[in-house]
Design brief:
By secondary structure, the protein is α/β, with parallel strands linked by helices. It has two domains: 3-274, TIM Barrel (Alpha-Beta Barrel); 294-387, no CATH class. 45% of the residues lie in helices and 11% in strands. The protein is built from 15 helices and eight strands. It has helices at residues 11-15, 25-38, 52-64, 78-87, 104-111, 115-132, 148-161, 177-191, 208-217, 239-248, 264-274, 296-304, 332-341, 349-365, 371-381, and strands at 6-9, 42-46, 69-75, 93-101, 136-141, 165-167, 196-200, 222-225. An eight-stranded parallel β-barrel has the order 1-2-3-4-5-6-7-8, surrounded by eight helices. Strand 3, helix 4 (78-87) and strand 4 form a beta-alpha-beta unit. The longest helix has 18 residues, at 115-132. It starts with 5 loop residues before the first strand and ends in a 7-residue tail after the last helix. Bound molecules: 3-methyl-2-oxobutanoic acid and zinc ion (ZN). Residues 14, 169, 171, 200, 202, 231-232 line the site of zinc ion.
Length: 388
């Protein structure tokens, strides 16, 4: 079995649908550019039936990023699938992502359908989706709480109907790693090489990353995740964390992704500049304190030999060198360097003037200007040159 793990980014879909995270089509396009630099394998750009904005975002990302595999979400209904297919029409590598709940609790209270009905609708929907595109994914929503015999049967039926990827979400973040690994291992065995098994973990118990890792060890080869771990409720598996676990602990985990990790920090900052919150300061990998050493003993050890207290070279994830906080006394030069670190390396003189003006106005009001605020000023100053 290949050890390559595919990264399916859903920042612009599951992430964007959560409180405080909505983005305009042009913001989604800018974020998509960063996700392309990052090297994600699949970019889920929206849920076209949900809103005109989602439809247009999928359409715009499909048109702009021709080499990218672009996914659109659809429930297992004719209307949803046709709308998603229409939004993906111009994509060179479209993925139609169908989903339907499979747990008894969802069947009884939400769908009010029998297992047989759900099975039939899933099969019909995948067959319909295959008429529009070869690359169809099926997600068994609430898979982690689904009866395992039924989940195995519906996964096999979905593959027979034409799905290439079977995603088994822990929709409510309820599972624990040993239990989830057992479930994933069972379905991986049952499907063999007929489909890629994917996971999509929510973080309600703070286990989204641990569950995703357990799933990889059990044979899952696609991880659905988001920048900064944003997503419904407590969020999704954090892309930067799962990727850096695999990269840092290759001694125990012989798996690899195609992610260009030096873009992780600027992706985090860019996202934070577009939504209403950034990662907490002590967030692994991208938090403001993730590479800060405060205690005297730690500083002493770190200055003698970095590896005493640092397991990742911050440059590996693109964290700017030094912990310089820019404030009202910082000059244009330091600001220009910081803009480059944050993903704006080629500002024109006029753009830099505008950024400097915006920065000075903000620096007059606040003590230290955060990186996401600087990124927001850069986005504003460069907005007219980016295609929307
Ligand atoms: O959490 C979930 O189950 C989902 C599916 C639609 C993939 O977001
Ligand atoms: Zn989800």
């Amino acid at each position: 079995m290949s050890q390559r793990v595919y990264i399916f980014d859903t920042t612009l879909r599951d992430g964007e649908q959560s409180p405080g995270c909505s983005m305009t089509v042009s913001e989604k396009l800018k974020m998509a550019a960063k996700l392309v630099d990052l090297g994600v394998d699949v970019l889920e750009a929206g849920f076209p039936i949900a809103s005109v904005g989602d439809f247009e975002a999928v359409q715009a990302v499909s048109r702009e990023y021709k080499d990218m595999s672009v996914a659109a979400l659809a429930r297992c209904t004719k209307l949803d699938i046709e709308r998603a297919a229409e939004a993906l029409k111009d994509a060179r590598r479209p993925r139609l992502h169908t989903f339907m709940a499979t747990s008894d609790i969802h069947l009884k209270f939400k769908l009010k359908k029998s297992r047989e009905q759900v099975m039939e609708e899933v099969v019909k929907s995948i067959q319909l989706a295959r008429q529009f595109c070869d690359d169809v994914e099926f997600s068994a929503e609430d898979a982690a709480r689904t009866d395992q015999d039924y989940l195995e049967a519906i996964s096999k039926a979905a593959v027979a109907a034409g799905a290439r990827t079977i995603n088994l979400p822990d929709t409510v973040g309820y599972s624990i790693p040993s239990e989830y690994a057992q479930l994933i291992g069972r379905i991986v065995n049952a499907l063999g090489d007929t489909a890629v098994v994917s996971v999509h973990c929510h973080d309600d118990l703070g286990l989204a990353v641990a569950n995703s890792l357990a799933a990889i060890e059990a044979g899952a080869r696609q991880i659905e995740c988001t920048i900064n771990g944003i997503g419904e409720r407590a969020g999704n598996c954090s892309l930067e964390e799962i990727v850096m676990i695999l990269k840092t602990r290759g001694d125990k985990l012989p798996y690899f992704t195609g992610i260009n990790t030096e873009h992780l920090y600027s992706a985090s900052v860019l996202l934070a500049s577009m939504i209403t919150f950034g990662p907490q300061p002590n967030k692994a990998i991208v938090g403001e304190n993730a590479f800060a050493h405060e205690a005297g003993i730690h500083q002493d050890g770190y200055l003698k030999e970095k590896s005493t207290y640092e397991i990742i070279d911050p440059r590996t994830v693109g964290v700017p060198e030094g912990r310089l906080v820019l404030g009202k006394h910082s000059g244009r030069h330091a600001l220009k360097d910081r803009c480059a670190d944050l993903g704006f390396p080629d500002l024109t003189k006029e753009e830099l003037d505008a950024v400097y003006k915006g920065f000075c106005e903000l620096a007059d009001r606040v003590k230290g200007v955060r990186n996401d605020a600087i990124a927001a000023i850069c986005r504003e100053a460069t907005s007219s040159r980016v295609s929307a």
